[in-house]
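forwarding from the other thread:

> can someone predict this with zinc ion?

sure thing
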Amino acid sequence: MKNFRIFKQVPRLIFGEGSLNRISELLPIKQNDVNYYVFIIDDVLRQSDLENKLNIKKSDFLEWFPASKKEPSTIQVDNLRDKIIKTHLGKMPTAIIGVGGGSTMDVAKAVSVILCNEGSSSKYQGWDLVKSPGIYKIGVPTISGSGSEASRTAVLMGVDRKFGINSDYSMFDGIILDSQLIKTVPADQRFYSGMDCYIHCVESLEGTMINELARGYAQKALEHCKEIFFGNSDDDKLMTASYMGGVSIVNSEVGICHALSYGLSIELGFRHGFANCLAFNVLDEYYGEHVLFFKEMLKINNIVLPVNICKNLSQKAINTMIDMTLKMERPLSNALGDNWKKILTRDKIKKLYQRM
Ligand code: NAD
Ligand code: ZN
């Protein structure tokens, strides 16, 4: 009999188009005048009247997060924590609400953790390094695919690595899946983030760490992704897929594509969904027919990926990318088994990057 980890899921979830206005059902009540909420919202949503819809008060702390600039970093998270503490003279917030894509939701999760754990967020990148529970937090995705709304991960760029804070304390206490919020996402970005979900499902299903329960989530999410990106678009289904793909990953692990994609993001600054697409495109040897379906979906959605992206990179740059890939031990072991170092050699990784 195999002992699986405790199956983790967000405990409270409100689902349905237009459900954002039910946020008060998830929020702990402010007991007095000095209590406040922290809202961290993707700044592309400035024109969406969210201050009203979320009933944000002057006494609350509101940060418009520049998610479209680059992927979030440990420095941004540390600075935001310091700013919150300074503005409210050390008084802790009653709740943190993250509204945006994986970037913004991950910042909300990380800030929640480091408000209650001393030092820089970089100290907690890794597995189960967080000691104290964070501030109560709510996630509201406005783009689907990353599965951050479901996961126990907050992915951040550090000085020399992109890595997640993976902890039960970096999981949301409640989430709202309101498909009204994803309607403004541009088609190409919708595809890249949606493919992040498709790839989560493939890596989870094809990995060694999956169990039957996580398989159920991954299979359903994969089915939804194919239906949507083969032409039957449906926003409720896309939100569902993102969430279910996230649940499957929490209870299994990602794989080779994510390991290679982190290298691309570190060295070339490519965004996660896009970097994943570039990497997945050359992984037919490992993910077989899933890659063929992916290529079909690229065509149907008129997405043309750039080619020869590593052609002008120095040997030093390629080495940094290979080093980053090799740091992803758990995903690589999930994908290839305990013997993964013998299978995915430095030379093999270099060849894969050169095919992109
Ligand atoms: P994102 O948050 O990086 O956003 C992508 C782009 O879409 C940004 O320009 C953003 O401003 C824009 N956007 C968001 N909502 C919009 C809306 N409603 N209308 C118009 N534009 C909108 O995208 P993502 O793909 O959700 O997340 C990627 C990030 O999540 C990466 O940093 C990645 O490392 C991380 N990630 C985290 C997990 C996890 O489990 N925590 C899993 C996968 C990826
Ligand atoms: Zn991902």
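The first helix runs from residue 50 to 53. thats all i got for now
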